[in-house]
């Protein structure tokens, strides 16, 4: 517990879920130790298939062949299998900095997890390992749709020192990347880049991405929503944030979290996935799968707190969530009972229901 107490001074992530959303889907969303965030048919509209059905067979075939076209090196896989009501549609999308082999590996793992975690559900969506890849399938058409839900967001709870200036830098960077991504072709709608906030001398790393089957206008509007939402509502003045939706992705941090960008061939400034010591960030985390899988945030190893953020902020939204657990923390009665408090003190990780 003392480790946790110390950690929570540095690590600010809390878990806030809109109440209506929880009640609707608490049994159907969660995370795993592979940092897999998933929603099983959020609105419970698509129904279930049975183990021996044509749908089950089609889904199985589709998922096992989804990434088999190794000529696809741009990280977007979309295909269908089956006829009429047994037809299954699937999309696999990797974050733009992920290499082709890693992408296929990510999707393969996501596939195994999602079918296990959403058994018999005709529709499901999940993001694997810090959104390295997204996998979704449904019996309805999902290609070329601008879909903004289900979604989640996370904020680094550290405030920017000069928030107005920092926000301006983030806004400029995000808008530049948004235009670049929206203008991308039907294989790739992605933008990544950096900007320097000369006030704090911090480099801001940004990434935006859409599924490339969107039109330019759809991609743009999905990202506009995300950028606006993070900056004006969900994570205002924060030094890091992400908004994750089926159709588009937006994230910025003050440390590098991208590893590979084929569009620039520049190695990322920091090849290490670990955040710089001065910029702790919440991550989606681990909880063992259970009847009510839980969204949660993980503890990173303690690190030097940044000078401008000596302590944790109080939560701005009341916490209401299923029982969460943390990476590195054994699930025990103590842990479980302290977790809500930790979450309150530790920052923000939200599921957006609207
Ligand atoms: C599908 O199965 C889930 C979990 O077993 C259940 O909660 C849900 O109500 C079912 N949906 C339908 C439409 O039957
Ligand atoms: C997959 O998406 C591409 C555009 O990105 C489109 O041309 C192709 O028809 C799609 N495939 C299916 C099966 O919808
Ligand atoms: C997720 O998949 C990995 C390997 O693909 C497996 O080890 C792990 O147990 C799975 N987790 C869940 C919750 O299904
Ligand atoms: C953002 O871009 C505008 C227009 O290019 C520029 O005037 C402004 O100074 C920039 N703001 C920041 C904080 O970089
Ligand atoms: C930022 O860096 C420049 C040059 O490296 C330095 O002159 C300046 O004092 C730094 N500003 C802050 C706020 O640290
Ligand atoms: C995309 O979806 C969002 C949310 O439903 C909506 O506000 C926006 O207008 C849509 N964009 C386009 C181009 O249809
Ligand atoms: C960040 O700013 C908000 C609003 O001004 C404030 O309530 C909160 O305590 C601040 N958090 C930190 C870590 O300073």
TrEMBL record:
Could you give a GO molecular-function term held by this entry? kinase activity
Which stretches are tagged as biased composition: Pro residues?
268-287
Residue ranges with Low complexity bias: 288-310, 318-332
**Swiss-Prot/TrEMBL keywords:** Kinase, Receptor, Repeat, Signal, Transferase
The protein here is known as Cysteine-rich receptor-like protein kinase
Signal peptide start-end: 1-27
Classify the source by domain of life: Eukaryota
Residue ranges occupied by any Gnk2-homologous domain in the UniProt entry: 37-142, 148-257
Residue numbers spanned by region Disordered: 264-332
Chain segments annotated as coiled-coil in the UniProt record: none
Classification via PANTHER family: CYSTEINE-RICH RECEPTOR-LIKE PROTEIN KINASE 25 ISOFORM X1, CYSTEINE-RICH REPEAT SECRETORY PROTEIN
């Amino acid at each position: 517990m003392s480790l946790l107490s110390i950690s929570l001074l540095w690590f600010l992530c809390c878990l806030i879920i809109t109440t209506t959303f929880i009640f609707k889907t608490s049994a159907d969303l969660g995370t795993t130790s592979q940092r897999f965030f998933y929603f099983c048919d959020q609105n419970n509209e698509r129904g279930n298939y049975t183990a021996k059905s044509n749908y089950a067979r089609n889904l199985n075939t589709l998922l096992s062949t989804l990434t088999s076209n190794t000529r696809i090196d741009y990280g977007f896989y979309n295909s269908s299998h089956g006829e009429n009501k047994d037809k299954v549609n699937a999309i696999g999308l990797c974050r733009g900095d992920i290499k082709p082999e890693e992408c296929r590996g990510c999707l393969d793992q996501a596939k195994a997890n999602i079918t296990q975690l959403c058994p018999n559900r005709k529709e499901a969506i999940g993001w694997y390992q810090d959104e390295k890849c997204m996998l979704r399938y449904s019996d309805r058409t999902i290609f070329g749709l601008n879909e903004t839900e289900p979604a989640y967001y996370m904020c680094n709870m550290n405030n920017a020192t000069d928030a107005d200036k920092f926000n301006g830098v983030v806004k400029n960077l995000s808008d530049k990347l948004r235009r670049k991504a929206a203008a991308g072709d039907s294989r790739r709608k992605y933008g990544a880049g950096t900007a320097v906030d000369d006030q704090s001398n911090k480099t801001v790393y940004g990434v935006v991405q859409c599924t490339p089957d969107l039109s330019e206008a759809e991609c743009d509007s999905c990202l506009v929503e995300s950028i606006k939402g993070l900056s004006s509502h969900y994570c205002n003045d924060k030094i890091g944030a992400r908004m994750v939706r089926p159709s588009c992705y937006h994230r910025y941090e003050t440390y590098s979290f991208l590893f590979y960008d084929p569009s620039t061939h520049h190695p990322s400034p920091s090849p290490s996935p670990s955040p710089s010591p001065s910029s702790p960030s919440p991550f989606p985390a681990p909880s063992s799968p259970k009847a009510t899988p839980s969204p949660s945030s993980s503890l990173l190893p303690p690190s030097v707190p940044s000078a401008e953020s000596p302590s944790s902020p109080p939560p701005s939204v009341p916490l209401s969530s299923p029982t969460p657990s943390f990476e590195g923390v054994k699930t025990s009665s103590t842990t479980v009972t302290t977790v809500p408090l930790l979450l309150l003190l530790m920052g923000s990780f939200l599921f957006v229901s609207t």
